Amino acid sequence: MAQGIPDEVMMNTALIRDLADVAKDAALLHGILMRIQESPNSSELVTFAPFTLFPSPVPRSIFLQALAVQTHYNTLVDRICQDVDFLQEALASTIAVDDFTARLFRIHQQILKEGKSQSVTLGLNRSDYMLDQGEDGTPSLKQIEINTFAASFGGLSSRTPDVHRHVLKVAGRLEESQRVPDNNPAAGLARAIATAWELYRSDRAVVMFLVEETQRNVFDQRYIENELWKRNIHTIRRRFDDVYQTGSLDEDKRLFVDGREVAVVYFRNGYMPQNYTSEQTWEARLMIERSLAAKCPDISAHLAGTKKVQQELARPGVLERFFPDQPEAAEQVRATFAGLYTLDMGPEGDRTVAMALAAPDRFVLKPQREGGGNNIYGSELCRVLEGLKQSSERTAYILMDKIQPAALQNYLLRRDAPLKVSSCLSELGVFGAYVRKGDSMVMNECVGHLLRTKSSEHEDGGVAAGVAVLDNPLLV
Fold first, then answer.
1. Is the pTM of this model over 0.85?
2. What stretches of 12-148 show up as alpha helix (H) in DSSP?
3. Is 370 marked active-site?
4. If both were cysteines, with which of 126, 261, 376, 443 could 151 make a disulfide (CB 3.0 to 4.6 Å apart)?
5. Is 307 left (phi over 0), alpha (psi -120 to 50) or beta?
6. Mean pLDDT of the chain
């Protein structure tokens, strides 16, 4: 297999097109679908989610490393959430200049002042990595970020292995088809939600998916919902406006929406400033945070997933704060860190600015935003830093080493896009799920993975942003 694609298949255009048709048929057969709203006035169109024709090679040892470290990342996020002083210290400079993060932090402070209503903590995370190519050609696992809020594609990635196995079998690659690993994060994510629901101890209560007005990725969420329905756990889908208009807390702070008691709120919306369209939206978020319902994420986990916290964790000795009796766990986590640098005001931040301006292609500038398409590179990085280098506004960003992965070749299958070989880069995500009741960790698991691949011409952006496509690792 040459760079992930069989040589003889690469040379046979007719066979490639036949395989692409087979792949699309298999995608539809296995339910890999996405709903796309084409324009405000159009009807909704259901189509297959974009994906690669072939699975992309990933070294088995690195894949297993990523899976093995995920439970430590779950523990790390949970312990950060419980460390009030660390969150306040880490975010102090950011909340002074970033209005969105500051607003979230004020909710966090209010909840601390009132006292948390719920003792059940639910975390559904995804840690994202790329394979950094060293000077000697040896790849190493380096983390891009950890997503604590609305970590998506657990549903669709549960179906992609069957599609790629089918394509490889049709291409006469039976042995390779057996090297596509099993994957079912939807079941694992749902199991954690179900555990939190059970700990709420009310059979009549529901799980509420807090969703956007317009859903482009609804089927991804439906897989998790269906897993909950299999357990006879009822789900509802509501927006912030619905919560504001029909939501209420009783004297015990139980949350009711449309008259239904809510045991778990699973946020699939609310991680970007534009998700909060009015003061009523913020009031709905606060109502949920104050409630007895388990939240995924709660406000502390939302803050724990910020870029600034990621950068602070890379400082010497900080991981040991969270793993005081587990030095091997701290080392396993630290081994996945790329270089991360503060832009706080002072000599250290000044050195970071000078370093970035001297070699901008070595770095990426990251704001405190999620959702893809926010990172800043190259000449744009220079323009932004030149404008902010003497201003405290620079503390709204962090600087990170730019990971240098080796490009592979593959076909990217998109609706109405030409079929051609593309130079591609892949990103590996690993899903983690944990549930804590009081001081006891009830569940802490790695529940699956996600591989996304994009053309190497794109520096940033995921599947939802229209840049990357779904993929599978081919273990080598």
1. yes
2. 13-29, 60-82, 84-95, 99-114
3. yes
4. 126
5. alpha
6. 92
